[in-house]
Amino acid sequence: MIPTKKISLTLIEYADPLIQDLEEGYSKNDLEAVLKLAACVWNACVVDQWHKTTENVTAVRHQLAHAHPMSAAIVDALIARKKRLFGLDVRGITNECVILKNGEFVVRAEARLDVVHIDIKGSSH
Questions:
Q1: Positive or negative, the Cα torsion across 48, 52, 77, 66?
Q2: Residue closest to 67 by CA, chosen among 75, 55, 79
Q3: Contact yes or no for 14/86 (Cβ under 8 A)
Q4: Contact 72/63 with Cβ under 8 angstroms?
Q5: Angle between the 71-86 and 55-67 helix axes, to the nearest 10 degrees?
Q6: From the centroid of its chain, how far is CA 125?
Q7: What is the CB neighbour count within 10 angstroms for residue 17?
Q8: If you write DSSP's letter for every residue of 45-60 in order, what string do you get?
């Protein structure tokens, strides 16, 4: 079955360990950067689920490891979190952003499905 929780809420829940690590008083840009990283790893996991491969996760792990030595550990933790807590959610995440509304951060995101690889019940072919 395809999850019905808003993808923006799912993204916040998924990225929560990274959000908790942000310094107190973090900025909109800080939160958005964390959410974009989380969405990147999430999408690599989802596309690999769609195509029954590991090449996207491997590519993300490789690219981010070059950016910062700690990135590999963060990516591995996010991959494990996706499998453990969100393994049945095969929606991709796009257009994630943070806006400031009435003095609060609001997270927006859109969900995408690969209809070629997903049946009506939301299970992979």
A1: negative
A2: 75
A3: yes
A4: no
A5: 150
A6: 22
A7: 13
A8: HHHHHHHT-SHHHHHH
Neighbours of 31 (CB within 10 A): 18
Calculate the dihedral angle through the C-alpha atoms of 71, 78, 29, 23, rounding to the nearest 10 degrees. Answer: -80
Instruction: Name the residue with tokens 């995101």.
Output: 109
Residue type at 60 in one-letter notation: V
Q: What is the mean pLDDT of the chain?
A: 90
Which of 109, 106, 88 shows the shortest CA–CA distance to 38? 109
Which tokens is 62 given?
Answer: 């490789």
Q: Is the pLDDT of residue 120 over 80?
A: no
For residue 69, the one-letter residue type is P
Dist CA 87 CA 80 (whole Å): 9
pLDDT at 83 over 80: yes
DSSP letters of 81-104?
Answer: HHHHHHTT---EEEEEEEEEETTE
Which of 118, 29, 36 is closest to 74 using CA atoms? 36
Higher pLDDT, 37 or 68: 37
